[in-house]
Amino acid sequence: MKKRRFKKRGKFFVYILLCADGTYYTGYTNSLERRISQHNTGKGGAKYTKWKKGGVLAWSKEYCYFKPAFLMEKRIKTLTRKQKESLVKGMRLNDVLKKADK
């Protein structure tokens, strides 16, 4: 079996998925279309979205390197539902994070 090399630079995305039951799922990936498809088909998606029957892309941000995307995913996962809703409704990411830090 051939071992895949992990890419550290290229396109990486942090995203928020609005699940069918109205909850939010946050993740990161290097292929947004593939990952959303995995969530919706249940093949390779997260356990959380398998139970929620997939969802639609509500928000995403592109990064050039893996580490900032990974760290931002962790940071967004600490936000409250209300803060994630602000992000989805179009509020700038930096503004949401500043309010969260207060």
Could you please describe the fold and organization of this structure?
There is one protein chain. This protein has helices at 32-41, 47-52, 66-77, 81-88, 93-101, and strands at 9-19, 24-29, 55-65. Strand 1 and strand 2 (24-29) form a beta hairpin. It is an alpha+beta fold. The longest helix has 12 residues, at 66-77. It is built from 5 helices and 3 strands; from the N terminus they run ββααβααα. The mean pLDDT is 90. It has a 3-stranded antiparallel beta sheet. It is 44% helix and 27% strand. The radius of gyration is 14 Å and the shape is globular.
Describe the structure concisely.
With 102 residues, the chain is an alpha+beta fold. It is 44% helix and 27% strand. The mean pLDDT is 90.
Features:
102 residues, alpha+beta, 3 strands
List the helices and strands and how they pair.
Elements: E1 9-19, E2 24-29, H1 32-41, H2 47-52, E3 55-65, H3 66-77, H4 81-88, H5 93-101
Antiparallel strand pairs: 1-2, 1-3
Proportion of beta-strand residues: 25-35%
- Number of DSSP-assigned strands: 3
Chain-averaged pLDDT: 90
Major sheet details: 3 strands, antiparallel
Terminal CA distance reads 49 Å
